[in-house]
TrEMBL record:
InterPro entries: 6hp_glycosidase-like_sf, LANC-like. One of its GO terms (cellular component) is plasma membrane. One of its GO terms (molecular function) is metal ion binding. The keyword Ligase does not apply. Gene3D superfamilies: 1.50.10.10. The keyword Acyltransferase does not apply. Keywords: Metal-binding, Zinc. This is Lanthionine synthetase C-like protein-like protein 1.
Length: 388
């Protein structure tokens, strides 16, 4: 997500537009909701309000029908016996995939400017490879590495090489018994990582040196290390430098040089840095103490400023901020992502609605993922980013 400003809104017809604050005060008593109940309600809203044929195509794993299909694929592995309207979750996954496939001729091929997790062609290939256990599709996905080797190719997660690394990890996990497929995937990943690491520093997207998880350095480092931990020692100095960018507030700048301390969300700010650090911490033993201090300080900021007025979601909303917290704080922020609370926020004029309300990263599918994490007490990871 780009650094967007909060939209203008009106609480009642005829009134002059007013600015919605970025967040509201976190001063209510600690609360908790039943995560399994909330998961079921979220999934019911997803298939009722955004059935497969109503979700516009496009968006890869980030938004659109492929992103919803990916959610149902992941949840089927966690809840193999769960049914919605008498259909198992993998059937729902297939239905959303079919919606995407009907538009496949309109999807642009991967390009140096769009080859990350938001690319439809590569996301479809990866998801089909794991669901159909098809080695030929693995080869087709790896053939797209040619785009990754172009010198002008982006390096970040959403549109660049780092996102391609996630897709390779997704496929790798489904072919552990296929030596030939694993060798192809790992050789491809090696080549892509070498190109990322050889790129000029600082890594830039649209001419700016971003710091965060979606477009920035922490996201790139995270995808490299989760794909091949042997690179961690070579990236230790860069990660150490990144830790030093933390504001006194605990937040992180969106880009360098640091500007105003504004955004506290996964894509830009402390939540994405915290989640990334939690998943790569084991591979940086020399930085453990610094990482722990940074996380503690960042969580104080998220707790104070994490109740965002953007529609709750993973990328730039309360669901993602909650996943960067732990224990009762995590549970408390999650109470603001229920259907009832979202309606209340809208009624009070304190909700900036999502442009992609069904999406894994921008809407209901992401809220469902967060409730599943709470229900199954999983490590607090983001589906499509650091769950693998």
């Amino acid at each position: 997500m780009s650094e967007d400003s909060v939209k203008q809104t009106s609480t009642a017809e005829g009134k002059a537009p007013v600015s919605i604050p970025r967040y509201f005060r976190n001063d209510a008593p600690l609360a908790r909701r039943d995560p399994h109940k909330q998961l079921l309600q979220s999934l019911d809203r997803l298939i009722t309000d955004y059935p497969p044929h109503h979700v516009p195509p496009g968006g890869g794993l980030y938004y659109g029908p492929i992103s919803v299909a990916f959610l149902f694929y992941a949840l089927h592995n966690l809840y193999p016996n769960l049914k919605l309207d008498d259909y198992p979750l993998n059937t729902w996954s297939a239905a959303y995939i079919e919606q995407a496939q009907t538009h496949i001729k309109n999807f642009p091929a991967p390009t140096p400017g769009k080859c990350g997790v938001s690319n439809d062609i590569m996301s479809l290939l990866a998801l089909y490879a794991v669901t159909a256990q098809d080695p030929d599709t693995v080869k087709e996905l790896c053939d797209h590495a040619a785009v990754m080797l172009e010198p002008e190719t982006n390096n970040e997660w959403m549109y660049g090489r780092a996102g391609y690394l996630y897709l390779l990890r997704l496929v790798r996990g489904a072919f552990t018994d296929n030596k030939e497929a694993i060798e192809l995937i790992e050789d491809t990943a090696d080549e892509v990582i070498e190109n990322i690491v050889a790129s000029p520093r600082p890594w830039k997207w649209h001419g700016k040196a971003y710091v965060g998880a979606v477009h920035g350095a922490i996201g790139i480092i995270t995808q490299i290390v989760l794909t091949d931990p042997s690179w961690a020692p070579k990236l230790e100095a860069e990660l150490g430098a990144l830790l030093s960018y933390q504001y006194e507030s605990g937040n992180f700048p969106s880009s360098l040089p640091p500007g105003r301390d504004r955004l506290v969300q996964f894509c830009h700010g402390a939540p994405g840095v915290v989640s990334s650090l939690l998943s790569i911490r084991p591979f940086f033993p020399e930085l453990h103490e610094r990482i722990d201090r940074v996380i503690t300080k960042a969580r104080e900021c998220i707790w104070e400023r994490g109740l965002l007025t953007k529609e709750p979601c993973l990328c730039h909303g309360i669901s993602g901020n909650a996943l960067a917290l732990d224990g009762k704080q995590f549970e408390h922020l999650m109470t603001y992502t229920t259907g009832h609370e979202i309606k209340s926020m809208a009624k009070d004029g304190m909700l900036e609605k999502s442009d992609d309300p069904s999406a894994l990263w921008c809407g209901e599918a992401g809220r469902a993922w967060a409730w599943a994490v709470a229900d199954k007490q999983l490590d607090k990871r983001f589906l499509g980013y650091n769950d693998l």
